[in-house]
């Protein structure tokens, strides 16, 4: 631990203890304690094992510094946001910040140089696989969401239909760019029309319009881009929906507010919009259905006398299963691969095989090699090397044998298995660890739909490439580094969640829960990558807007 960081942490802690209210001190210290534990555990895991760590001598100072620094800064931040919400002056939003066409044009103008530099687009990540399906080389399945594959299939065939090479990827990229810019502009308008203080209204415009990371990712052929847009809209709609529901059910709310809410004609439209967005999010990311189910259970317990008001969630879940279990098989779309649900078990088994091989019995080794012939290629930060050769046929023949083997290994080697789990998702909660994958993958991977870049604006392209590789110097400066780290979103969510809890904002806190549930599904995935974190990064302006909302005023302008 650098001396400068230790001193900075001590100063933040001392100032918070002296000048901040007790409730913010307690909340800040709770946040700091959790942060310190996770930072210390992350450092230990990165150093390859608890068994190699001297917790007291080597990591004690690190834990105290991290906990005190994070706790002090959190307490000060809680107090600062409280001051803004109580004392900040409500400023009249300039018409240009409430005008969708103006904001839309501004955002498109900011994204245009990146689009020209990368023209006609980026076919990276899983584009090679969905292109095989889109061109009819292999049959359709729901391994990658079929709805996105179907969308790409329409564009991919345009080369043949129109007789113009690369017109498909060009039109797809343009359509996606136009759609995402519209989502960002709408978000800015939604924020600008709320009763907020000072410059808060302008932050979203700057964040979405000038952030080069979003410029690049908007051009990539992957389901995560459109999912991020739907997820951002879902957060906005859910915030409106829950504010409506909780205010109407709050008997202590001012009569004027209740009258405004009960007389609002948007109830049915809001339910329909919420259902559509929930369904689209689930259809564009398979693991989202588990998020929606868990959140529905949470919401039902939170609003025990309002089950009927959660009908949008039940309807979305029902429609999802009808589409994926009835409609998709009916049109010949196969289900997803079972191995996509097993990155954690496979990584844990492989870790034990490598670290405790001498103590593993011959029968267990035989079973491991039977189900995981690629076990020798184990990578503690990336499950695909062992997952790729997983013997699915053997698994389908005897699932019980596989899970029995996994259970035995968990029981015999709990520490190794625990470390394997933490290492696999380490970059998602330990900001000092970067993903083993490229920050944003911009290469073109498909051999069946080759893309040739035009090479326009080479200097602009080179600059954006430093961003996509996370090599730009400014991306590693204080604050900027945290803004682009995929390990920070969960801490942002926890910070604002605590803040909403302190101010008793049930609606905003509930929306935070949805995002944390999505983040939790990432812990079960095969790798920590920026494309998974992008939906959470996009929500930052929403939390700031909801957090700085004056509690004594209407939530809507």
From TrEMBL:
Record keywords: Membrane, Transmembrane, Transmembrane helix
Keyword flag ATP-binding: no
Membrane-traversing stretches: 26-49, 61-81, 102-119, 169-192, 274-301, 313-331, 483-502, 509-533
Record flagged with keyword Transmembrane: yes
InterPro entries per UniProt: DUF6020
Top-level taxon of the source organism: Bacteria
Protein name: Glycosyltransferase RgtA/B/C/D-like domain-containing protein
Originating species: Parablautia intestinalis
